[in-house]
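SAMPLE LOG
Freezer: B-3
Tube label: C17
Construct: single chain, 220 aa
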Amino acid sequence: MTDPAGGSPPPQGSVPPPPGAVPPPQGAVPPPQGGSWNAPPPTAAPGGFQTQAVAAEPGPAPGIVYADLVNRIIALIIDGVILWVINVVLIIIGGVFAVALGGLGLIMTLFFGLIYAFVSAIYFVYGWTRMRASFGQKFLNLETVNAADGATLTQNQAIRRWAFLWGPFALAAIIPIVGIFINLLAFLYALYLLYTTSQSPKRQGYHDVQAATVVVKRVA
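STRUCTURE (predicted):
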């Protein structure tokens, strides 16, 4: 049976569009809902994460998992070795200046400590904002990204994460007189970061929470 206008009756349960509404074009696909995850799942929330509980999902999107603690430790060790080599070079240079300048040796040591802190900040901030990973993380196919949508970190985010992750160790290099005491505090702080990372479903350590970041690994 047809309606008075000669068309087919609407399907049962359908609601006619309001007057003046413009129907979407045929074959139109809704735009992606933001974020930088590759191939986000169909059930993704506006931020790009799946709506299911984190504990039931390996990661925020198909082919992506939250980086495990062992891989993150290995990556950090690689980064630490690279920065340690840089620090040794600076210590040697600072020692040479300390011997040559006598009374100015402490000032030169503090100066080179500041240089080391600056170099470590550039090392991490550049890696996270340009490559989405430090060199150690890149070696293990890890990425440090924005926790909300997987986007590349902003410079402020990267600086904040560096301060909460590497700041205590940089401080120990700047103030060598009390370096042993600060190194002990830095070691205890590192244990705290490991503990908070291991207890988080998304493997977010205290430094990740403070910078709103997450470390992921692409497996596909």
